[in-house]
Task: structure prediction
Amino acid sequence: MNVSDSEVVLSILEKVGYSLCDSADKANLVLMNTCSIRENAEQKIWSRLEQLRSLKKKNKNLVIGILGCMAERLKESLLENGVVDIVSGPDSYRSLPSLLEAVSSGEKQVNTLLLQEETYADISPIRMDKNGISAFIAIMRGCNNYCSYCVVPYVRGRERSRNPQTILREAKELFDNGYREVTLLGQNVNSYRWSDHPESKISFADLLEMVAQINPTLRVRFSTSHPKDIDDSLLYAIAKHHNICKHIHLPAQSGSSDVLKRMNRTYTREKYLNKIDKIWEIIPEASISTDLIAGFSGETEKDHLQTLSLMKYVGYYSAFMFQYSERPGTKAAESLPDDVPAEVKNSRLNEIIALQNKLSLQSNKKDVGKILEVLVEGSSKRSKEQMFGRTSQNKVCVFPAGEERVGDYVLVKIVSCTSATLIAEKIQTKYSL
Result:
């Protein structure tokens, strides 16, 4: 989401004469687009600000701004360290030109007003990706779920969806400019809803199919899904279209119903596993990834073991795994004790990571011998004689380089693997869907 927002910011600033440079040393404006989902993310920003302090001493005209969730959460207090000149929340990027103009007169500026109608739908983002093949499209903003541990609803506001025609326009522009993969983004994409009038309602499944129909050689991905909202219509849409990728990121957060209740996730372990079973029934070739939190308030050893058993049942191919860090302003911070000792959190997280490494290897081993389609993304970091891309299941695959170019589709046969990578031989280059 921050990559997507940064591309919107760049588009806004280019229209008033700014251009992107490759180093803070060369810049007269440095903007940091921030995340508040974990304490560690904010600590990185504070460290970066200290690094920029010395740069600002050398360049008195350097303007430094904090954007995004940290700006929304901390507001004016970010100005107190003397380094920050501009604080701009997620819904105030249109005001950046006027904020910058005001700063030039010596006054620090803050705009953290959340706007229910703001989706930046009319702005064509300036793409910052390096391969020119994959791009993000934000289809909605905000969140209505209020998970007890999460700060997102407070710093990004309530859910609001973009007009589907603006999304289709953006996706078609990307395809016409050579992009071959788009990822539809939302805090909870399953909640996407649009209606011009009572008889015309577009769900996320409808939108997904509309984007897929732009061209069969345009891959479509999405992130993130909330387990409570994923339904059969979405799964059937994925199964129906070859170019809708067969990968679903479905955050579990915990394998314990008791912990999930305290998290206000609004589903139980059993309901989550029922969703998993339905995915396999409708899309048997799908890969599933997840998010997991170790050491949430009140988590017992039994709860932790339930998380491990859930991981084994699903066999995730990958996971984002974190220790719980209490976020100020959330329901958990207000009413639930952060009572799992740090060393226990760390131990449980290490067990989760170790198990996931095994599951990732097991998942990849199941692909050995299969013929899969790969969208070429570039040369392997380890060797220019190898190319890499991703399968529909979002798995990284490397294979010998040949005449193929970035953006080509290649059919490969998987011959071996590691826990992180599929290793393949080519069968057909420039494969056309």
